[in-house]
Amino acid sequence: xxxxxxxxxxxxxxxxxxxxxxxxxxxxxxxxxxxxxxxxxxxxxxxxxxxxxxxxxxxxxxxxxxxxxxxxxxxxxxxxxxxxxxxxxxxxxxxxxxxxxxxxxxxxxxxxxxxxxxxxxxxxxxxxxxxxxxxxxxxxxxxxxxxxxxxxxxxxxxxxxxxxxxxxxxxxxxxxxxxxxxxxxxxxxxxxxxxxxxxxxxxxxxxxxxxxxxxxxxxxxxxxxxxxxxxxxxxxxxxxxxxxxxxxxxxxxxxxxxxxxxxxxxxxxxxxxxxxxxxxxxxxxxxxxxxxxxxxxxxxxxxxxxxxxxxxxxxxxxxxxxxxxxxxxxxxxxxxxxxxxxxxxxxxxxxxxxxxxxxxxxxxxxxxxxxxxxxxxxxxxxxxxxxxxxxxxxxxxxxxxxxxxxxxxxxxxxxxxxxxxxxxxxxxxxxxxxxxxxxxxxxxxxxxxxxxxxxxxxxxxxxxxxxxxxxxxxxxxxxxxxxxxxxxxxxxxxxxxxxxxxxxxxxxxxxxxxxxxxxxxxxxxxxxxxxxxxxxxxxxxxxxxxxxxxxxxxxxxxxxxxxxxxxxxxxxxxx
Length: 575
Prior knowledge:
This protein is an alpha+beta fold. It is built from 16 helices and 19 strands. It has helices at 37-58, 89-98, 146-157, 175-178, 227-231, 233-238, 284-293, 310-314, 341-352, 356-364, 398-407, 427-442, 456-464, 483-491, 505-516, 520-537; strands at 69-74, 103-105, 112-114, 117-121, 127-132, 194-198, 201-205, 246-252, 256-261, 275-280, 298-299, 318-330, 368-370, 416-421, 448-453, 472-477, 540-552, 556-557, 573-574. Strands 11, 12, 13, 16 and 17 form a 5-stranded antiparallel beta sheet that branches. A hairpin with a 2-residue loop joins strand 6 (194-198) and strand 7. Helix 1 (37-58) packs across helix 7 (284-293) and helix 14 (483-491) runs antiparallel to helix 15. The longest helix is centred in the N-terminal third of the chain and has 22 residues, at 37-58. It is globular. Residues 1-62 have low confidence and may be disordered.
């Protein structure tokens, strides 16, 4: 999920558009000065004692460990844990543990593999017949049937249910009736493109050809729901019932959610531990300190200020691996000062004035990699990633940068601002570094300056109101590992995560052709061709790919992150 955002939900005609910044994006790079080791020892002792008290009051318990249970850092989800209403990282972690859908993404390769789907058949890439495996049940004993999926999808799509992930169903026929673009009342209660054929079979008719659509079905918006969800919705929200390897035992908001392994789970990925306690932390530094003090087993957001020391602190219990996340600078293409053929030269020149290698090394300590395209290396070449596709525009070249900016008429008004939200206290460092790089190239200390906006809500409001007057920070975390998810939601005309309002008929045409391609190879070739238009016009500057990082205690083994930078909780062993 995107999941772009802290951040609001994600228009048409984009099928899976989502905000370029969102809760599901761990895109908050924290960086500050950290005390050297002699002082650190004292700070850690004091903080550990304070933290133990804080956890007792705020919900982590007393730091004690139940046998076989993983103690992991977490944050309260901003929304109820309805699958079609959850688009943040923290809520997504829970859904990944308590639900299984038609597909599941292999934690190591990202490949979309069948979970509850026995077969997904189509002869025309528009009409699909889905056959379920036998003998799957929800944790309350109810059988998982075709109706469990169809009812869940119809619920998620309805505009009056106000589900943040409703747009995931917009490629299914009838979406315009249950979720009118005008925002008015629905004229239908169910999607006309969904039909239950029998207990194990249902059909789906899309509004257009979409050959890779089955690969999107590992996203949590598509999971099935039991009858209890509809019959006593309030009770279900208090204690969600799913069909995954874990069950929710209890949840105290602001404190801890306790999940325990479900013995009746029929899938091949049964939990190897007895459960997971997700302990709420509002400060990743506190969580890291608790990990070192033995009060916590797992953190999956190592603070930037700890990165210089994490190897010596944790040794091989530190994980740093690529994730499906990219950071960009997006231009307001609705502003005439930044649009037009001449300004494309200016945008390319700015990109070439950014010393990505230096910034990622000095600020991010190896947890970022300079970007050379608009996707992510986790897709691998067979999934559409093509290193170097951005070409010279993503290479640091001060001389050419100056020439291009001058040839394009110079910076609008002689100066540019980079807008970012300041409430996380994390973006200022890299924005200042980017501006310093541009200023050095242009030999003008005031050519580029950061422009903080106090809160993320205000920041999103400025985006929605088309009030950006220069490039602004944008981040994207993939919803599913397809090249389509990095391009269409962000750059297709009218897509709801197209915050820069870029529009190009050639790009749209190539995306449509790629979606309709009957073979993966042809689809990927089409998306790459579309991506080359981004390289020519540079509506957004790729900055860097983000890694997932985690640290864990000596109690744990077989700890790994998946390609969304989320721990694979079910495979962790304790003891």
